[in-house]
Sequence to fold (371 residues):
Amino acid sequence: MRVLVTGSNGFIGKNLTLALVEAGHEVLPYTRTQQPAELPALLTRADAVVHLAGENRPIDPAAFDAVNRDLTQKLCDALKVEQARRGRHVPLLANSSTQAEQDSPYGRSKRGGEAAIEALVADKGSPAVIYRWPGVFGKWAKPYYNTVVATFCHQLTRDLPIEVSSPDAVLRLVYVDDVVQELLRKLAAPGEGLQWGRVQPEYTVTLAALAEQIRAFRRCRDSLVSERVGTGFVRALYATYVSYLPIERFVYDLPKHGDARGEFVEMLKTPDAGQFSYFTAHPGVMRGGHYHHSKTEKFLVIRGHARFRFRHMMTGDRYELFTQGGTPQIVETAPGWTHDVTNVGEDELVVMLWANEIFDRAAPDTVTNPV
Fold:
């Protein structure tokens, strides 16, 4: 499919263009550098149109009408001609705004654009979908322009102060990946007539809560305790936050604890699913020699040869096993069994470790008792 994307170099346009290319479609871009007179030629090649071009913060308020209303009208006029030439419809997906019902220069211009699309559908029966998206957030949005999410992420990834002028203000937000998936779905099955599209899920958050959540992402590198970033709004917001990291902050250091046996480094901690670490051991060195009442651990040998030994604290039963780097094998410790691990190879032993709880020095649940 060949898709004409107006505003292809904008925030949503960049995300959509990449997704279209990934899906094997050809993108016909239309940007601010082009003129409306170029639209008819582009439309002769297009199988569908996604109209994302818009103006929301112009220096001259007249630009509201010039882009939001007049450009949309010219696009619709060109579509009428093209559809008459082909004898078939070209689906149109268009972004309006939740402010289209407001009596403001911006709102009136957006409503004018909607009216042009409505007239196209009424005149030609063309399939069209109009979206009144709330605030859209995600990678590649311009700080100080597209959304406060972009502004806060830009500022906090650079240790700049943020201003929360109206902490109780409630924001309605959708994530750009969800917007793109909705557009792809509609391009595949545009339906008939005029439709008013929606993007789900939609999130609501206060400005104060938004700022605090992004601050919490910033603190994770110091505490090593991750936020719950696996699902929903926090997942989308965290992906957005990380996308604003300056390249010099793609890397950060971790505390390292070392002694004669080797090194121990904590990598990541979670609020309710334990922590990840790794340790090293020199040849012949033994680590461990303790048991836990409740804590459990999983060990994965990354490099070297290891011997694990276990002894039951009540029955005295013993168990011994060997594993090595290159063997994707987890060794799990069970409560009530004292255990140790020894480097039985000639090279340094490197072992990844997961514990089901964050280590608490005040209540470590770790009792020394040699195997």
